[in-house]
Structures are given as C-alpha cells and as structure tokens.
Design a protein that fits this description.
Muramoyl-pentapeptide Carboxypeptidase, domain 2; 2 domains; 3-stranded mixed beta sheet; 4-stranded mixed beta sheet; alpha+beta; 11 strands; disordered N terminus; 332 residues
Amino acid sequence: MANKRKWYHLTHSARNKLWLATLAFIISFAALALAQSVTDQGNLAELASGSAGQAPHSLNIFAIPAKKLFGMQGSPAKINSSAIGSYSLGCLAGAHALPMTGDTWQVMRPSRNRNWGTPQLIALVEKLSAEAKAKAGWNGFLVGDMSQPRGGPMKTGHASHQVGLDADVWFTPMPTHVLSVDERENMVPLEMVKDHRTVSDNWSDQRAKLIETVARDPQVARIFVHPPIKKALCASATGADKSWLAKVRPLFGHTFHFHIRMKCPAGFAGCKNQAPAAPADGTGCGTELAYWMGPIPWTPKKRDPNAKPVKPAPALTLAGLPAECRAIVTAP
C-alpha cells in the first residue's frame, strides 16, 4: 500500500521516466538473451559445418536431440576438465584422449572417436593395464568405448559413458604387436558366454584374476559383466576377503568386454556418484545373482492387446542435461 501511495504521488513526468527506464532494462535484457542464443547457435553451426557462418542462426539447439548435438563434436571443449552430472545424464569438460597405443594398452575402433575421458580416467586406465600385466599376467588392455570428446549421450551403444568416467575393456588380450588401423576396426572380440547362464570355453582363471585386480582398486566404483561371468567369478573366488565381488555387477550386454566405472574424482563438485554397491550378502553372489540366473530378466513382458498404444518418450534434449552442458556443447 505504501508503495502505491508513493507511485501516485509521483509527478506525471517522473512516472514517465520510470516507465522508460523499466522498458529500457527489459529491452536490454532481451537483447542480451538473444545475443547469447545467437552465439550458442553460431558456435554449434561452426562445429557442425567445420567453418564459421555456414549454418543458419535459426537453429534451435534445444530442439535437437542431445545425442545428435554431442555426437557431432569432434574435439573437446577447451576449458578446465570436469565430469558434470551423472554417468547417464551429463557431459564432459576439458576431456583428454587416451593415446592410441601404450606399453600395456591399445585403443580399438578408433573411428568411433570415443577414447576420451577425464585426466583421472586416462591415468586410471594406464595404471590398471600395467597392474593387470604385473598381477594377472595379462598382456595388455584392448580398450573399447570410453566417452565422446565432450561426453554427453551417444547416438548408439550406451546409456552411460557420458561424463568421462567409464571405460570398456575387451576380454581379448592385447596382441604382442601394434595393431594396424584395419585390425583395430575389424578384429572380432572373443565371446565369454554361451547364454545367460553359462560362460563359454574362452573364460579362464586368468580373466577372473584380471577382474579381481581391477575391482580391488579403490578408485573403481563398479565393474559391469554379463550375468554368467558374475556367476563364474563367485564360484572361483578364493581367500578371506571377497568384498571386491560387490563391485562386480551383472548387467545385460557385457559378453565380450567388462565395463569399468570410476568414482567421481575429488574436486569435481558437479559430478554425481552412484550410491556404493552394497549387496545384502556383501558380494552379490546370493539373491542378487539368483535373480539374474532366473527367468524374470530374460522374459519379454507381454503386452495387453486392449491397452492403449504407449507413445515413445520424447528425445532427450540439452534442456534435460545439467545447465553447464550448454556451455560445453557450444564452446569453441
């Protein structure tokens, strides 16, 4: 009420000046927002076309599926390294590339351009590959998908791998020679399973020791393997301390590789860890494994013929990712 009395006591001239000042602020704010939008769109256009000014500024980056936006990035954002968001809903700033060849690793499928991660993940892969050779007699890692240059959703293959803290490693040991580009692109990996209950003849005690070596590293949060591999690990594990088995999680699709997930590094405030793996029996070899060995995960759900058709969920866009991902996907 007091504010209203003050307004009415203003002279006509003063009220006009106040209206004009308010209008000027609104216009300047709108212009700033428009300029930011045009900048975002221009940056994205340059990334998509390879040169400046060739794509229309009418492009709406919030209407494009996020997997398409991040899939078109060929290089990392040149800003400080950070994992932003969660493993399945985030992006990656200042990514580093795992070199194509090292003493104890080689990158596979290089044309996919998914050998990127945080500096901490790069260091962990290098460290674990060396430890696997020393402790498990494993010649070296064949490294599959890590993350895209700026993380984010991928067009194909993964729901996670979005923040530069995931890496797939083949169960095929690294050959003693440096693989050619053709070999890296076309080599067929060894399958470890016959079906969802049984490992293949390719499974071995050495591969079990490989998984244990990786799982015991305190920086590793989880390892994903196909369910029968978890079963084989539970059957062969020895020693009093089997707590490392809790990190080994059964999951569809991991038949020829295992998936290493790293904990959020210290100092990455925007990175969201999963809750620590804590199966009831301390290893995941009890009721959790029994579920995966049973029929439920493998039986397709029957559709009610009288039910209304379910509309597919709309594609994830930039608006559904952490706000920082906007700057990462449009950065030079």
